[in-house]
Amino acid sequence: MNTRFKELAGEDCPAKDLRTWTATVLAATAFAAAGQPKSKAAAKRREREVIREVAEALGNTPAACRRSYVDPRVIAAFHNGQTIARVTRGRGESGDPSSGKTSGPRLRRRRGWRARRTRPACR
User: Structurally, what CATH architecture does the domain formed by 19-88 represent?
Assistant: First the structure.
């Protein structure tokens, strides 16, 4: 898979980079949909919820998701009151302009898309 990904990307980057990018985009979008919390405790709760949802979408644990996949700058920006809400406004939670769903911070998987745990190739 890494070889094919390198062929498509044209760069020397492993497939894990794609998972990291996906997790970071999902987290940034969920933080934007969640809105600004009123207290530090509410912000920590919302952070846990978002990380748990992203981990579920990736088929991973929240600890592994936070440690290895979601860019810590996205979490820090959320705690500093910065999100991508202005960019995603009118696009719905998934960032997909055709979705039109803005019901809350829950992540929805696209139809037919399923994240799978990846294992390193045995060589």
Answer: Orthogonal Bundle (1.10)
What is the greatest pairwise CA distance in the chain?
51
Instruction: Report yes or no: 71 and 24 within 8 Å, Cβ to Cβ.
Output: yes
The structure's pTM equals: 0.66
Residues in Cβ contact with 55 at an 8 Å cutoff, skipping those fewer than 6 apart: 61, 62, 64, 65, 66
- The C-alpha atoms of residue 30 and residue 39 are separated, in whole angstroms, by 18
Q: Residues 88, 29: contact at Cβ < 8 Å?
A: yes
- DSSP assignment string, 74-91: HHHHHHTT--SHHHHTTT
CB 97 within 8 A of CB 82: no
Task: Give 61's contacts (C-beta < 8 A, 6+ positions apart).
Answer: 55
Q: For the chain, give every domain's residue range.
A: 19-88
E strand or H helix that includes residue 58: helix 40-58
Predicted local confidence at residue 14, as pLDDT: 74
